[in-house]
Amino acid sequence: ETGVTQSPTHLIKTRGQQVTLRCSSQSGHNTVSWYQQALGQGPQFIFQYYREEENGRGNFPPRFSGLQFPNYSSELNVNALELDDSALYLCASRPDRGQETQYFGPGTRLLVL
Amino acid sequence: QQQVKQSPQSLIVQKGGIPIINCAYENTAFDYFPWYQQFPGKGPALLIAIRPDVSEKKEGRFTISFNKSAKQFSLHIMDSQPGDSATYFCAASRYAGNQFYFGTGTSLTVIP
User: Fold this and answer.
1) Average per-residue pLDDT for chain B
2) B46, A33: Cβ pair inside 8 Å?
3) Which of residues 38-97 of A touch B (CB under 8 A)?
4) Pick from A43, A48, A106: CB nearest B98
5) For the residues of B64-94, what is the DSSP string, one character each?
6) CA A94, A38, B24, B63 torsion: positive or negative?
7) Cα(B112)–Cα(B109) distance, integer angstroms
């Protein structure tokens, strides 16, 4: 086990709704990244947070937003859900942004109808 | 644009065989190349990683071969076992970079 947990494990939403996904990192891990993994594809980088500030973003629109908290938990928020947002959402944490080894959680599977 | 291209999409080998998964990249700024293993219902787990200053790295039954001039790297699994059946992803990033670029994955099945 990586020590990274995510909730919920599964979620069903309808188009246009908003969703919040949660991640709990290992204690001491100051960096958390979020990825979207569509079925049959590799993870796509959404953004990264370091010490509660966003410090990198992939090719995702502003309706994807996040928060990181001092207790090593974080959130991914997605507004105005679209059908194409259906995917497995993964968070990954690491002790510092300069360290390459990142530890993934099991993911949240989101289905948008 | 896919930053890291991975092949094959799927692979079936007999127990004891040596599956080989290949990846290619374009961005010469990449200098960290990890491989991840993912089982159904789990997140990816780091298997082995290499930097471009070496051409080969071995950890247990897993070997990465790296060809800097060709901008290609590959994963070899020696003496493959049914428990190795999983999806494998290659990835690339810049040193201390904040973004990892993943390949599209290879579904490996090892037949007993």
Assistant:
1) 93
2) no
3) 40-45, 48, 50, 55-56, 58, 90, 92, 97
4) A48
5) EEEETTTTEEEEEETT--GGG-EEEEEEEB-
6) positive
7) 10
The radius of gyration of chain A's CA atoms, rounded to the nearest angstrom, is 13
Distance CA A39, CA B2 (A): 16
Question: pLDDT tens digit string along B72-109?
Answer: 999 999 999 999 999 999 999 986 567 899 999 999 99
- What is the chain B residue with the closest CA to A38? B104
A101 to chain B: nearest residue by CA?
Answer: B46
**Residue B105 Cα distances to A38, A108, B21, B22, B112, angstroms:** 11, 19, 9, 10, 22
Contact A56 B99 (CB under 8 A): yes
Which whole number is the average pLDDT over A78-98? 91
Phi first, then psi: what are they for B96, rounded to 5°?
60, 15
Beta strands in chain B (DSSP E): 4-7, 10-14, 20-25, 33-38, 45-50, 56-59, 62-67, 72-77, 86-92, 101-102, 106-111
CA distance A79 to chain B (A): 23
Nearest residue of chain B to residue A46 (CA atoms) = B99
Dist. CA A53–CA B10, nearest whole Å:
39
Decide if B99 and A48 are in contact by the 8 Å CB cutoff: yes
Cβ-defined contacts of B58-66 (< 8 Å, 24+): B62/B35, B64/B33, B64/B35, B66/B33
The secondary structure element, H or E, covering residue A65 is strand A64-68
